Inverse folding.
C-alpha cells in the first residue's frame, strides 16, 4: 500500500463514521447492531492510526491530531444515543444526544441570553477582577518579605478550601444580579492565581537577579525584564486553573438566587420541570464556554511564553 | 425482658407477614411540612398496616417526578401543577390523596416599598422560587395583565433563594412565602405583621393544590400495588390527624428525623402549627372543585415562561378510588 | 519558627479587619431596627448590638467560633447535631471519591502513555471534562445512577468527587510515566526488557514523585466535589447539606460554622497527604 493511501485511510476513514452516525439519526434505526458495527469501525480506525502514527508526514499527523478527539467524541455520542434508544430510557432521565441537539437548535436565543448573563457578565469580569487583584496583591507581598512569609502559608491553605460554600453568603451580600456572581468568581479565582504568581516571582535564579543588580537595575526594571517573564509559566498555570473555577463559581451562585435568566438558573429550574434536554443543552454551552476560556488562556500563554521549553514541540 | 421478647415477637410477626416496602420521595428537605409521614413512621402507623416505609428527603436539585420516573420511589409528595406538567411531558402521574386542603403559598410585601394592593405591582421586583411555584405566579400575573419580561409597566421577576433575604435586604418589593415557613422567618427577623401586606393565592383566585401524593399510572393498574397504596394512604392520614392534634410532639418527631441536625425545634413547632391549619378539613380525599381551580389557574397563563400545561390534562390525573377504599374501613 | 510571627500577625490583621467589617455590615440592621422603633441610636450604642445578632450579615469571629465550638465539642460526636459527625460523612465521601479518582487517573495515564491514539483522542476530552462545571452535571449524575439501580447518595457523591480529583492525578502521572529519558529507555532495551518490564522497572518508579505531588491537589479537589455533591442533592447529611439548611432557614451561623469545619477538614487532609508523601519519598530514598 502506498504512503498516500495509508494517510488517506487514517485521516478520512473516520468520515464514514460521521456519515454513518448522521444516517442512524436520520433514519431512526433503533437496532443496537448498527451501533455496535459503527463502534467496531471506530476501533479499527483507532488501531490503524495507532499502528501508523509514526510513519506519517507532519501535515497528515497534524490532521490526525485534530480529528482523533472529534472521532472519540462522536463515538461517545454514538454509544449514548445507542444505549438510550435501544434500552428505551425515558427522556426525563437521560435524553438522547439527537434530542439535545434539536433542543439547542430551537432555543438559541434563550441559550444566548443565559450565556451573556452568566459568562459575559458573571464569569469573565469576575475572572479579570480576581486576576487583577491577585496581581496587585502579589506585587505588594513581593515587596515585603514579612508579608510574604505571613500571607503565603495562609494563601496556600485558602486556595485549597471549598470556597464554593461562600456562594450563598456572597449572594446575600451582593444581591441577585450578576454582581454577586462576579463576586463569587473573584473570591474563587483570587487565591489560586495569587499563590501561583508569588511562586512564579521566586522562580528566577539568584545569579540572574545578581546580574540585574550589577547593571544597576531598579526593583521595577528587574521585575519587568527578568522576574515577570520568568514567572509567566506559573502565572498561566494559575490562570488556567482559575478559568475553570470561574465557570463553576458563576453557575453555583445562580442556584442561590438570580434573575430569570442565566445558565445556573436555567439548569436548576429545568431540572424541576423535567426539561432535561434543556439542562443538557446548557451543559453543552458550559462545556463550550469553558473550553473556549481555557483555550484563550492557553493561546495567550503560547504567545507570551514562546521561549519556554514546555512550549516547544 | 418481657418487653424485649414482645418486641422480638412483633418483629418476627412483621417479617412473617412479609412487610411491603414503600419508598416515599418528599418534595423538599425534612421539615414539618411532611410531619404526617414522619409521625406515621415514628408512631408505627405504617408498621400496623404491614408496611415498611422509607422516607427520602428532597432538595433543590431533586425533582420528585424524575425520581419516580427512574424507579427510585413508589410514591411522591408533589404539587398539582408540577404533576400535571409532568403528565403533559409524558410522565403520567396520578394523585391518589390530597392531605393539604388549603394552600400555604403567599406573596408578602413590605409596605415601605409602596405596595398596598395588586394595582401597585407595576414596575416592582417580585421574588419567586421557581420550584413549581412559578406556575401559579405567572397565572396570576396574566390575570392581572402584567407583563413579566421586565418591560415598563410590568413586573421584574427574581428567582429568590430558599430564604427571605431578598425582602429583608429590600432587593425585592415582594417575595413568595409559605405561611408555615418563610412568613415565620420574616416575622422572626424583626418585621411586624403590620409592616407587611400579604396576598394569598387562593383568595386572589389563582389557588393551586399543594402537597398531594402521586404515583405512576401504570403501576396503579396492579391490584396489589393499589392495595398497598390504600394502606399507605390510610396510615399517612392517621399520621396527619395525629400531627394536627399533637403539634408539639409532631415537631419533635420531625426534628429527630432531620439528618442534618440543623433544624430547630422552635421553628418546626411554628411550622407544624401552621401546617395543621392547611391539613385541617381534609380527610385525604381530593376535592374535584380544587382540581378544577388549579387547572383554570394554570390555563390562564399559557406562555413560554410558564409552560406548566398547554391544554386540559388528558387521562386520569387523579383518582378517588384509593381514598374511598382507605376511608371506607 | 521564623514563620510563626508573620503568620500570626497576618492572622491577627484578618481578625481585626473581620471585626471592623462585621460592625460595618451589621450596623444597617441595628439602625433599621432603631428607626422602626422610632428612636435614634449613637455609634457607641450601635457597636455592641452588632456583636450578637441572631441573623448577622457577617457574624463576628467570636460568634462563629462559639458556634463552631458548640458543633465540634458541645455534643456527642455521634449526634446529628455534631459537626464532627457531619465532617465524618463528608470525609467518607471525600475518601471514596479520592480513591476512585486515583484509580481512574492512573489507569487512564497508563493507557495514554502506552497508546498514541489514546493520547491524541482522550487527552483533549480529559481537559474539556474539567471545563464542564461539575455543579451542572451533579444532578444528572444522581439521576442516571439511581436509574442504574444504585441506591443511596454515597456512590453518586463519590463519582462527583472523583470527576474533579482524577484530573490532577492523570496529568502528573502522564508527565511522570514519560519522565525517563531516552538513554534510560535505551539501556533497558539493551537488557532485552519488554514493554511490561520497562513499565514496571523504570516508568512506574520514575513516576512516583509526580504521583505523590499530585495527591495534595487531588484531595482538595475531591473535598470540593463532595461538598458540591452534598449541597444541592437532597440535603441529608454532611457539611454541604448543613450549609444548604443554614442558607434555607436564614441561619448564617450554621453556614459559617460548616464552612470553617470544612476548612479544618481540608487542612487535616492536606497535612495527612503531606505526611504520606514525605514517608513515601523517604522510603524511595529521596530525602525531601
Amino acid at each position: 500500500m502506498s504512503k498516500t493511501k495509508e494517510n488517506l485511510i487514517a485521516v478520512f476513514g473516520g468520515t464514514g463514521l460521521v456519515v454513518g452516525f448522521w444516517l442512524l439519526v436520520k433514519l431512526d434505526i433503533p437496532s443496537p447492531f448498527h451501533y455496535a458495527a459503527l463502534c467496531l469501525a471506530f476501533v479499527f480506525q483507532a488501531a490503524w492510526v495507532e499502528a501508523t502514527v509514526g510513519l506519517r508526514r507532519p501535515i497528515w499527523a497534524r490532521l490526525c491530531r485534530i480529528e482523533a478527539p472529534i472521532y472519540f467524541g462522536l463515538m461517545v455520542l454514538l454509544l449514548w444515543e445507542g444505549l438510550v434508544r435501544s434500552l428505551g430510557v425515558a427522556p426525563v432521565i437521560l435524553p438522547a444526544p439527537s434530542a439535545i441537539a434539536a433542543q439547542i437548535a430551537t432555543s438559541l436565543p434563550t441559550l444566548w441570553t443565559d450565556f451573556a448573563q452568566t459568562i459575559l457578565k458573571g464569569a469573565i469580569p469576575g475572572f479579570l477582577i480576581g486576576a487583577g487583584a491577585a496581581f496587585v496583591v502579589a506585587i505588594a507581598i513581593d515587596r515585603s518579605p514579612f508579608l510574604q512569609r505571613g500571607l503565603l502559608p495562609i494563601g496556600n491553605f485558602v486556595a485549597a478550601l471549598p470556597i464554593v460554600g461562600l456562594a450563598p453568603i456572597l449572594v446575600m451580600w451582593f444581591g441577585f444580579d450578576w454582581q454577586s456572581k462576579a463576586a463569587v468568581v473573584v473570591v474563587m479565582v483570587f487565591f489560586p492565581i495569587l499563590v501561583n504568581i508569588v511562586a512564579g516571582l521566586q522562580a528566577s535564579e539568584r545569579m540572574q537577579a545578581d546580574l540585574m543588580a550589577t547593571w544597576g537595575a531598579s526593583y521595577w526594571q528587574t521585575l519587568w525584564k527578568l522576574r515577570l517573564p520568568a514567572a509567566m509559566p506559573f502565572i498561566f498555570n494559575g490562570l488556567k486553573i482559575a478559568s475553570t473555577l470561574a465557570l463553576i463559581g458563576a453557575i453555583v451562585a445562580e442556584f442561590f438566587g438570580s434573575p430569570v435568566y442565566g445558565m445556573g438558573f436555567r439548569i436548576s429550574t429545568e431540572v424541576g420541570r423535567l426539561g432535561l434536554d434543556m439542562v443538557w443543552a446548557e451543559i453543552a454551552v458550559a462545556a463550550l464556554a469553558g473550553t473556549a476560556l481555557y483555550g484563550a488562556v492557553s493561546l495567550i500563554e503560547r504567545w507570551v511564553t514562546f521561549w519556554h521549553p514546555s512550549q516547544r514541540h | 425482658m418481657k418487653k424485649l421478647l414482645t418486641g422480638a415477637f412483633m418483629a418476627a410477626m412483621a417479617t412473617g407477614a412479609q412487610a411491603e416496602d414503600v419508598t416515599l420521595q418528599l418534595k423538599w428537605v425534612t421539615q414539618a411540612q411532611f410531619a404526617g409521614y414522619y409521625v406515621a413512621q415514628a408512631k408505627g402507623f405504617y408498621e400496623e398496616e404491614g408496611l415498611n416505609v422509607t422516607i427520602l428527603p428532597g432538595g433543590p436539585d431533586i425533582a420528585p417526578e424524575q425520581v419516580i420516573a427512574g424507579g427510585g420511589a413508589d410514591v411522591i409528595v408533589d404539587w398539582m401543577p408540577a404533576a400535571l406538567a409532568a403528565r403533559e411531558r409524558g410522565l403520567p402521574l396520578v394523585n391518589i390523596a390530597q392531605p393539604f386542603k388549603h394552600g400555604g403559598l403567599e406573596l408578602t410585601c413590605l409596605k415601605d416599598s409602596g405596595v398596598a394592593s395588586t394595582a401597585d405591582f407595576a414596575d416592582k421586583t417580585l421574588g419567586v422560587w421557581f420550584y413549581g411555584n412559578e406556575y401559579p405566579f405567572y397565572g396570576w400575573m396574566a390575570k392581572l395583565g402584567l407583563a413579566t419580561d421586565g418591560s415598563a409597566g410590568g413586573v421584574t421577576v427574581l428567582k429568590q433563594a430558599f430564604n427571605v433575604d431578598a425582602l429583608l435586604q429590600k432587593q425585592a418589593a415582594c417575595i413568595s412565602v409559605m405561611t408555615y415557613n418563610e412568613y415565620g422567618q420574616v416575622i422572626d427577623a424583626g418585621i411586624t405583621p403590620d409592616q407587611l401586606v400579604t396576598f394569598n393565592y387562593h383568595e386572589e383566585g389563582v389557588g393551586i393544590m399543594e402537597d398531594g401524593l402521586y404515583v405512576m399510572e401504570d403501576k396503579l393498574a396492579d391490584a396489589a400495588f393499589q392495595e398497598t397504596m390504600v394502606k399507605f394512604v390510610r396510615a399517612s392520614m392517621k399520621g396527619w390527624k395525629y400531627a394536627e392534634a399533637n403539634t408539639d410532639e409532631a415537631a419533635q418527631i420531625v426534628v429527630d428525623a432531620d439528618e442534618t441536625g440543623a433544624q430547630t425545634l422552635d421553628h418546626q413547632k411554628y411550622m407544624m402549627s401552621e401546617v395543621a391549619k392547611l391539613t385541617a378539613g381534609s380527610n385525604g380525599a381530593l376535592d374535584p372543585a380544587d382540581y378544577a381551580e388549579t387547572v383554570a389557574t394554570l390555563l390562564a397563563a399559557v406562555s413560554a415562561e410558564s409552560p406548566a400545561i398547554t391544554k386540559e390534562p388528558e387521562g386520569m390525573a387523579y383518582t378517588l378510588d384509593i381514598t374511598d377504599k382507605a376511608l371506607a374501613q | 519558627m521564623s514563620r510563626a510571627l508573620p503568620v500570626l500577625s497576618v492572622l491577627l490583621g484578618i481578625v481585626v479587619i473581620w471585626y471592623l467589617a462585621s460592625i460595618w455590615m451589621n450596623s444597617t440592621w441595628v439602625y433599621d431596627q432603631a428607626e422602626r422603633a422610632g428612636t435614634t441610636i449613637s455609634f457607641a450604642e450601635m457597636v455592641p448590638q452588632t456583636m450578637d445578632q441572631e441573623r448577622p450579615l457577617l457574624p463576628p469571629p467570636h460568634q462563629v467560633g462559639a458556634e463552631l465550638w458548640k458543633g465540634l465539642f458541645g455534643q456527642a460526636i455521634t449526634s446529628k447535631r455534631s459537626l464532627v459527625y457531619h465532617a465524618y460523612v463528608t470525609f467518607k465521601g471525600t475518601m471514596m471519591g479520592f480513591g476512585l479518582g486515583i484509580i481512574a487517573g492512573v489507569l487512564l495515564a497508563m493507557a495514554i502513555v502506552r497508546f498514541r491514539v489514546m493520547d491524541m483522542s482522550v487527552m483533549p476530552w480529559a481537559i474539556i471534562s474539567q471545563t464542564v462545571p461539575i455543579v451542572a452535571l451533579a444532578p444528572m449524575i444522581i439521576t442516571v445512577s439511581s436509574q442504574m439501580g444504585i441506591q443511596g447518595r454515597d456512590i453518586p457523591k463519590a463519582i462527583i468527587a472523583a470527576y474533579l480529583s482524577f484530573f490532577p492525578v492523570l496529568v502528573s502521572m502522564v508527565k511522570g510515566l514519560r519522565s525517563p529519558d531516552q538513554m534510560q529507555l535505551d539501556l533497558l532495551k539493551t537488557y532485552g526488557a519488554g514493554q511490561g518490564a520497562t513499565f514496571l522497572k523504570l516508568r512506574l518508579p520514575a513516576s512516583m514523585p509526580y504521583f505523590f505531588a499530585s495527591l495534595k491537589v487531588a484531595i482538595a479537589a475531591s473535598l470540593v466535589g463532595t461538598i458540591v455533591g452534598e449541597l444541592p442533592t437532597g440535603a441529608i447529611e454532611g457539611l454541604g447539606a448543613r450549609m444548604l439548611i443554614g442558607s434555607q432557614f436564614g441561619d448564617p451561623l450554621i453556614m459559617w460554622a460548616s464552612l470553617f469545619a470544612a476548612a479544618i477538614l481540608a487542612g487535616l487532609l492536606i497535612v495527612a497527604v503531606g505526611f504520606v508523601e514525605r514517608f513515601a519519598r523517604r522510603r524511595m530514598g529521596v530525602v525531601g
The first strand of chain B starts at residue 20 and ends at 25. Confidence is low (pLDDT under 50) at residues 1-17 of chain B.
